[in-house]
Amino acid sequence: MRKWWQDIIIYQVYLRSFQDGNGDGIGDLPGLISRLDHIKTLGADTVWVSPHYDSPMDDNGYDIRDFHKVSPDYGSLEDFRRLVAEAHKRDMKIIIDMVLNHTSDEHPWFQAAKDPTHPEHGHFRDFYIWQEPKWEKGERKRPTNWTGFFGNPTWTYNELMDEYYLHIFSKKMPDLNWRNKAVRKAMKKVLRFWIDIGVDGFRLDAANHLEKNWDFPDASPGYEHFSSLPEHHEYLQELGEEIFEPHDLVIIGESGGASTKEALQYAGFDSEEFDMLIHFGHCWADTNPKNTLTPGKWAKGEIDVPKIKKSFARWHEALQGKGWNAIYWHNHDHPRIVSHYGDDARYWKESAKMLALILYLLPGTPIVYYGEEIGMTNVDYERLEDFRDVEVFTEYENFRANGSSHEVAMQALRDRSRDNARSPMQWNGDKHAGFSQTTPWMPVNKNHVHINVKDQLEKEESLLKVYQRLLSERRKEDVAHGDVTFFGLEHPETFNYLLRAKTCDYLVLANFKETPLEMEFPIDPSGFRLFLYTSDRKRAEKKATSFGPYEARMYKRKR
Ligand code: GLC
Ligand code: CA
């Protein structure tokens, strides 16, 4: 049976950077409301809003202080209700980001947990994960040597308790103890609160980290002891059964590094955990293991195109007919896709269009990240002070400790940091890019003078227009339910596939790289006509087998 959420097109909004509505330099709910029509005109009908809750903003709201309150930076509960009403009025849906894994250290639960004299300490202590110090040669040591996702140790000592608490993200984000039934009960109450307000779904943040290995063995970095442990499925099932299913919500789970083996467990049609998941299988396909100065995701290397294709193919295959897939390039935790997998200089337009063409004719539910539709690029910051992300600062120190120069460390930040995808939306070429009347909380990219919505609305050949065409085509032809065949998965440069849709077939052919390329049609092209393309039409027609830098074409055939 078809579900409503199989036919939606999601647009992800990083609230802080989307539109400032009250002139304080910070994006907010009234600002978002004023831009719902932009999202609708693009062809999307569902908004995933990054955390809007009260928070000290250590991690821009993923550190929640009060689950029931809207951050004053973003507006009020009334504004939130208005957002839901305005969206519904336009036949749009609202998905909110729900953080299950941790709270802010300023959350009242943690305040009680960390203070033995607090009247409710007894109840809240085990909401979090405490361990006694390890003693080595008379020295107090952390319970394990694990490293968290922001590059810092996962344990912080608390004097009042004389114990360490666990945090797999920043030290201001203590992990909740999901083994504790009272935690699960409290989180269900939070979910119900927002369901009653009328949200249509949740994106579940860091959902595969809910269970930890309580033997606490040493391991570095140790991710396997706090990621994807089997019991986290039980917690998710419990939420699914009691909360999600009965309300017919859409649930999108974040499960970084999930395997296709787990696909059906998460997002199979008979699973109650998620409806679709975000796994990042095709992200970071360009690392360089030899770089030890700025290692891991920070080390930029050659793009492994087969790896990207195979990830899409594998996930499609794992879920086809049995579950549901989400398709996306990136989100607020990645560099901008055109800078990452394309070229943000000479071939900016070509590569941005190529990336759009090859993604948005794939089956599943698409998620467009704000600014992607106009080809927003990585930030151009020269100074460390221009960055905002908590992760940037710990990692900068790590790079320097590894022996990187300031310049090398800064380049890694400009290439790979999460701040790349968080700069203010570029609405127009004015001083603050139409985002705000005043200096924004984070500098706008200087290229907003030529990369902006206003300009692209006026130009027929713009990237924005390509997005509009692609998304409307997808809807008309039911591409979400289409059947895809990939060609040449091992080929290092091409990205080719055939999509059988409702009444027609699409043949997508692309050169993923800068070097020009000759390619044969992977199938007999008769009956196909050129429909969308990144270079000029004449060239594409005259030289159908030669592809320039980042050139992509989409052919269409009626069946
Ligand atoms: C998720 C979010 C990321 C956040 C982290 C901790 O990975 O996408 O932005 O920092 O969880 O909540
Ligand atoms: Ca504001």
Description of the molecule:
This protein has 559 residues and is of the alpha/beta class. It has three domains: 377 residues, Glycosidases (TIM Barrel); 59 residues, Oligo-1,6-glucosidase, Domain 2 (Oligo-1,6-glucosidase, domain 2); 79 residues, Immunoglobulin-like. The protein is 27% helix and 16% strand. The protein has 16 helices and 22 strands. The strands form six sheets. The chain has an eight-stranded parallel beta sheet with strand order 13-12-11-5-2-1-15-14. Strands 16-17-18-22-20 form a five-stranded antiparallel beta sheet. α11 runs parallel beside α15 and α12 packs antiparallel against α13. The longest helix has 17 residues. It starts with 9 loop residues before the first strand and ends with a strand. Bound molecules: alpha-D-glucopyranose and calcium ion. Alpha-D-glucopyranose (GLC) binds next to loops. The site of calcium ion has 6 residues, from loops.
Low-confidence stretches: none
What form results from the Cα inertia axes? globular
Q: What share of residues is helical?
A: 25-40%
As for the CATH topology of the largest domain, it is: TIM Barrel
Counting DSSP E segments of at least 2 residues, the number of strands comes to: 22
**Largest sheet, spatial ordering of strands:** 13-12-11-5-2-1-15-14
